[in-house]
Amino acid sequence: MDWSEQRLGRHLKLRDLNVLLTVARCGSMGKAAAQLAVSQPAISKAISEMEASLRVKLLDRSPRGVEPTIYARALLDRGLNAFDELRQAVQHIEFLADPTAGEVRIGSSLGTAISFVSVVIDRLAKRYPRIHFDLLTGDATLTYRALAERKIDLLIARIFAPVDEEHMQAEVLYEVRDVVAAAAQNPWTRRRRVKLADLVNVPWVLPPTDSLQGTIVAEAFRVSGLEVPRAAVITATVPVRNALLAGGRFLTIEPDSDLQLPGTSPPLKRVAVNLPTTPRPIGIITLKHRTLGPTAQLFMDAARELADIG
Predict the structure, then answer these.
(1) pLDDT, tens digit (0-9, with 9 covering 90-100), for 112-142
(2) Is residue 237's pLDDT more than 90?
(3) CATH architecture of the domain covering 178-278
(4) Is the pLDDT of residue 164 over 90?
(5) Is the model's pLDDT at 1 over the cut of 50?
(6) Strand order of the sheet with strand 232-234?
(7) Where are the domains of the chain?
(8) CB neighbours (10 Å) of residue 251?
(9) Domain spanning 3-79 has what CATH number?
(10) ω before 266 within 30° of 0 (cis)?
(11) Angle formed at CA 114 by CA 229 and CA 302, multiple of 5 degrees
(12) 304 has a pLDDT exceeding 60
C-alpha cells in the first residue's frame, strides 16, 4: 500500500465526503451543520482534518459563505460516484431481501410523463405495489443535468440530438411525429383536409420559441413558408395548455404519442394537417459505466413492454 492509500484509509471516510458535499451544496458551514444535525465546530474540524490529510485547500471562505476549490470539486466529482454506487448496492441488497419493494428515480418531460411514463408507473405499481417511484419532470436541460449528476437513475425523453456518447447511452423505445391537435369539439378536427396555412390566424397554444419543442414548431411553419402564428398563447406549462385546449378554441402542436395513450387530459384529436417535421425517437437514456439497481431494471423492462404494445 503506497503513501496516498495509507492517508485515504486512515483519514478520508465516507462521512467526511458527506460533510464536504453538504457544505458545498449549502454554501455555508452553519447551514450544513443544521442539515446534518451536528455543531458548526464539528463541521469546521472535519473540513480542516481533510485539508490537512490531503494537503490542499478545499474551501474558499468569504463573507458570503464558502465555495469549493478546484481540489474539492475534483474530490466531489468522484465522491458522488462513490455515494451513488453505495446507494445502488444497498438497493440491490434490499431488493434481494424483498423483490416486491424498491425505489426508482425517473426523469422525463411533463408531456412524456403524462402520456407514457405515467402508464408505465401504473402498470408496474399494480405488479409491485410497494415500489417507490420518484419522478422528476422538466425541460431537457434540467433532466439531462439531473442524470449527469446521478440525481435520477434514468431518463425517458425525446432524443433531439445524439447524446453525449462519452458519458451516456440511449435506447430507442419508439418514434413520434408531431401533429396539430385540439379538443374534440374544435371544428377543425372535423375537417378532412387542412393546410397549415389555413390555421395561421387561428388561436394557438404553443411552447416557448427557445425550447426544444419550440424549435420543432418553428421548423414546421418555416418549411411551409409561414411564420409562427402571432395569435398564440406561449406557455411551457402543460396544465395551462390543457386548460386552454379544453375550451375548444385553441390548437397546439405535440407528439402523436400523446394522443394514443391513456392519461392525456383533456382527450385531444388530431387535425388533418401534414406537418413537414422530422420524426424523433423517445428513448431511455442512462449513464455509461453505471450499474443500476434491479428496480430501475424492472422499470426499463416495463417501458420496453409498453413501447412494443404501442
Answers:
(1) 898 899 999 999 999 999 899 999 998 888 8
(2) no
(3) 3-Layer(aba) Sandwich (3.40)
(4) no
(5) no
(6) 232-234, 204-206, 251-255, 178-183, 268-270
(7) 3-79, 98-175+281-309, 178-278
(8) 23
(9) 1.10.10.10
(10) yes
(11) 135
(12) yes
CB contact burial 221-244 (16+ within 10 A = b; e otherwise):
beebeeebbeebeeebebeebbeb
List, as own/partner pairs, every contact residues 63-66 make where C-beta atoms lie below 8 angstroms and the sequence separation is at least 24, other chains included.
64/27, 65/27, 65/28, 66/23, 66/24, 66/27, 66/28, 66/29
pTM above 0.85, yes or no: no
**pLDDT tier for residue 241 given thresholds of 50, 70 and 90:** confident
Three-state DSSP state, 84: helix
Backbone φ, ψ for residue 56 (5° rounding): -140, 160
154-158 vs 101-108, strand pairing mode: parallel
Instruction: Say if residue 247's pLDDT is above 60.
Output: yes
**257 membership: H or E segment, kind and range:** helix 257-260
Strands 65-68 and 59-62: antiparallel
